[in-house]
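Input record (one chain):
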Amino acid sequence: MSVPGSGKGPARRPRGPKPFRHLVLLLDYREPGHVLVDLKPATVQPLAWKLLLYLAESAGSVVPYGELYEVLWGDTVVEMNQLSYQKNAVLSAISKVAPGRRDIILTFPKIGFMLDLSPREVLIVPSQIVRYASPSLHARP
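The corresponding structure, as predicted from the sequence alone:
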């Protein structure tokens, strides 16, 4: 808003830091299977989503294979390649909406997986915020 006769242009809002400018990954505990990657909605199968959520909770840290098997399958015996299959399912879903994020999960042979993001690049929030951020994420066909 300008003041008549003052010679000044419109008033400008002060610019502060943008709190989500570093946000890469957004997950919703109450909406399993839904994720925002670079603010683009993606859908991930239930076990793959659970893997991504668990890795997101430890973003930037290596999570051992044994811990991941326990979280995903508990006492159920599964083939060793199932963890890699779930990782590839996550990467496939993510790369469809954000091709530059194809390598977001790193593999440390004989050790575990790591979500290659810093904790400030990951946000795990209630579903109301996700709905506000991206209504198309929850649209039903």
